[in-house]
Amino acid sequence: MNFLAHIYLSGNSDSLKIGNFIADSIRGKQYLSFPLEIQKGILLHRAIDSYTDFHPIFRKSKHRLVPNYNHYSGVIVDIFYDHFLAKNWNLYCDIPLETYAQSFYKLLENHFEILPLRIQNMIPIMAAENWLVKYSTIEGIQYILTQMDRRTENQSKMQFAASDLKTAYIDFEEEFTLFFEEIRLFITQKIATL
Predict the structure, then answer these.
(1) Which residues contact 4 (CB under 8 A, 6 or more apart)?
(2) Handedness of CA 85, 88, 89, 93 (dihedral sign)
(3) Residue 152 has pLDDT above 90, yes or no
(4) With a threshold of 0.85, does the pTM exceed it?
(5) Which of 190, 168, 133, 134 is nearest to 11 (CA)?
(6) Given 14, 91, 105, 177, which is the most exposed site by the fewest CB atoms within 10 A?
(7) Is 81 within 8 Å of 180 (Cβ atoms)?
C-alpha cells in the first residue's frame, strides 16, 4: 500500500492520517515524541505494512514482478494498488478524489511544523504535482515510477513497470480488489485496539 491507501485506511481521523503518512520517516521509538493520536497513526502504518507484506494475495502480485524488479517488486505493487484504489475511488469513498486529495494537502500544510524534514521537503512537490490524483491513470503511474527510478539512480528499473501493469492489468486489479476488502476488515479491527 502506498500513500493513498495508507491515508484512506486511516478513516476520518486527521491525526491518524498524519501519523500514517509520516510513518516511513520515523524510526524505532522516535514515534513516542509525537502526540498520542499521531503515534497511533504511525503504529497503524506499521501494522498495514506487516499485514500487506505477508498477505498471500499481495505476495502473488509481487511474485509476478520479481523476475524483472527483484526487491523493488513490493514497492511497485504498492503503487499499482494505489492506482486501482484511485481509479475505483467512487466505490470506496463518497468524497471525490480531487476534493479528498486537496483536503489532505491542506491538512499537511496546517500541521507542517510537526512533520519530519523529509516530509516537509516533499509536500510542495506532492501537492503541486497532485500525486494522489495522478495515481488514477496509467500515465500518472508511469510518471511516479519514473521519478522513483531516478531516486535509485535508475537501479530499480521501475520506470518500465507500467508496461507490466498493462500486460497483467486484469490480474492485478482482481488481486487488489480481493486484498483491499480483507485489509479494510483488518484495519477496522486494528484501529479499535490502538
Answers:
(1) 82, 85, 86, 132, 135
(2) negative
(3) no
(4) yes
(5) 190
(6) 91
(7) yes
Ramachandran region of residue 35, left (φ > 0), alpha (ψ -120 to 50) or beta?
beta
pLDDT digits (tens, 9 = 90+) for 93-140: 999 999 999 999 999 999 999 999 999 999 999 999 999 999 999 999
The per-residue pLDDT for range 155-188, each reduced to its tens digit, is: 889 999 999 999 999 999 999 999 999 999 999 9
Query: In this structure, which amino acid lies at residue 78?
Result: D
Residue pair 17/107 in contact (Cβ under 8 Å)? The answer is: yes
Write the DSSP string, 4-59: HHHHHTTTT-HHHHHHHHHGGG--GGGGGGS-HHHHHHHHHHHHHHHHHHH-HHHH
Close Cβ partners of 74 (under 8 Å, ≥ 6 residues apart): 53, 58, 62
